[in-house]
Design brief:
Layout lengths: L1 E5 L3 H13 L2 E5 L3 H8 L10 H10 L3 E4 L3 H6 L2 E4 L15 H13 L4 E5 L7 H12 L5 E5 L9 H6 L4 E4 L3 H10 L10 E4 L1 H32 L3 H9 L20 H14 L5 H24 L8 E5 L15 H10 L3 E5 L4 H8 L4 E2 L3 H5 L4 E4 L11 H7 L4 E4 L6 H6 L3 E4 L8
Parallel strand pairs: 1-2, 1-4, 2-3, 4-5, 5-6, 7-8, 9-10, 9-12, 10-11, 12-13, 13-14
Helix pairs in contact: 1-3, 5-6, 9-11, 9-12, 11-12, 12-13
Length: 439
């Protein structure tokens, strides 16, 4: 089938490359001429394991192409996916849908014959109705079916998630659209990928509900970690104890410095605003957002506590800047408010991240000395803080690390190491939701 993908951001590029790998002919469209030129030259603008090879292979096989011109690919397409950004709108926190609506107008002018217009971007319930209204208003005779097909990709594991999904949610009641969408995802049938057909608005809501629920699990275990520290419990054992209950599940029960990234912060906020507009407030989600915002800066106070109550004139080494491993994404990363707080508290900050430092410079330039590796970062530090659990940080040479530091203080915000292991190595060690090792 022929697919046009509008937008070459994270969702659009991963989805387009995977559809092409299924055997479809895919054209990715973006207004950013520089990005399109780079992609045509084989340069992938985001860090995602395996994506560069996937793009290279499908470009070589002529199944995947990139262009700034929307009209031609849309006119030829069986399905046009809208995969543009929906950032939080300044001032009120609602999802900014201006890029989605602008895409709908351009698509309406270019479609030829029956075309399925698919909203892949994360959008509030009711957006599909507005997209359809815009298309009809722009071109009454356009023969289109507007479908919601939210993505559920984890950064760092996006290709596997796309090719081996838990479910594929397709919001439409149009039979022709169902046939097209079924054919597009047909290569997954051998993997028994479950297609869940729903009404369009229900599909839109499923995406937000899923992200809000996962954010709630993270926030719940983070608050429980604080209680564990007060009463002498071990949050990792608590998480395992409740996660083995298959009604709860063990995923997203890892205590840490709070959630971040491109999805959870903006999606929880957009869901809250939608609920308030419809006079059905989601108090639990509102609390999740408030607790998570407060937690990130509270981690700086935790580091100060490990140094006797103050970080003024101290050097803090930060390992990990991205919001999670295996990505260069700095959007709403916990490292940003943490480092900003260190700066406010008078500390000097050194930092290292395996993939995210170029992105981090946009947010942290002037606040951080960027280093070439973990040991250079630790040089002369009064405390080392593990913020992102990259594999490179899970088996550090503890003797070398201690020798590099001014004071052997480690604050592990991801519980990468064991308290007894760190104590034997001579570190003053603090983690999340676990009592210090007493020997």
């Amino acid at each position: 089938m022929r697919v046009a993908m509008i937008g070459t951001g994270y969702v659009g590029l991963v989805s387009g490359a995977c559809f092409a790998d299924f055997g479809h002919t895919v054209t990715c469209v973006d207004k950013d001429a520089g990005k399109i030129a780079a992609l045509r030259a084989g340069e992938v603008p985001i860090y995602e394991p395996g994506l560069d090879r996937l793009v290279e292979t499908n470009v070589r096989e002529k199944r995947l192409d990139f262009t700034t011109e929307l009209a031609g690919p849309v006119a030829e397409a069986d399905a046009v996916f809208i995969a543009v950004g929906t950032p939080s709108r300044r001032g009120d926190g609602h999802a900014d849908l201006s890029y989605v609506y602008a895409s709908a107008r351009e698509i309406a002018a270019a479609v030829s014959g029956f075309t399925v217009v698919v909203t892949k971007s994360t959008v509030p319930v009711g957006t599909g109705d507005e997209v359809e209204r815009i298309i009809r208003e722009t071109r009454l005779e356009a023969d289109v079916a507007v479908v919601s097909n939210p993505e559920f990709l984890r950064e760092g594991a996006a290709i596997r998630d796309f090719k081996h999904p838990d479910r594929i949610v397709i919001g439409t009641v149009d039979e022709r659209a169902k046939q097209v969408m079924t054919e597009i995802y047909r290569p997954l049938y051998l993997n028994q990928a479950p297609l869940l057909f729903t009404a369009r608005g229900t599909a839109e809501l499923i995406k937000y509900a899923a992200n809000a629920f996962l954010a709630t699990k993270i926030t719940f275990i983070n608050e429980l970690a604080d209680l564990c520290e007060k009463v002498g419990g071990d949050v990792q054992e608590v998480a395992r104890g409740i996660g083995l209950d298959n009604r709860i599940g063990g995923k997203f029960l890892h205590a840490g410095p709070g959630y971040g990234g491109s999805c959870f912060p903006k999606d929880t906020l957009a869901l809250i605003k939608t609920a308030q507009d419809h006079e059905a407030p989601l108090r639990i989600v509102e609390t999740v957002v408030a607790v998570n915002d407060q937690r990130k800066r509270a981690m700086a106070r935790k580091v100060a506590g490990a140094l006797g109550g103050s970080v003024r004139d101290k050097t803090i080494a930060v390992l990990g800047l991205t919001f999670k491993p295996n990505t260069d994404d700095m959007r709403d990363a916990p490292s940003i408010p943490l480092i900003t707080a260190f700066d406010d508290m008078g500390a000097k900050v050194r930092a290292y991240d395996p993939a995210g430092m170029e992105q981090a410079k946009r947010d942290l330039d002037g606040l951080v000395t960027f280093c070439g590796n973990a040991y250079e970062c630790a040089e002369g530090a009064d405390a080392l803080v593990i913020v992102t659990e990259w594999e490179q940080f899970r088996a550090l040479d503890l003797d070398r690390l201690k020798a590099a530091m001014r004071q052997p203080v480690v604050v592990d915000l991801r519980n990468v190491y064991r308290p007894d292991e760190m104590a034997r190595a001579g570190f003053v060690y603090s983690s999340i939701g676990r009592a210090p090792f007493r020997g």
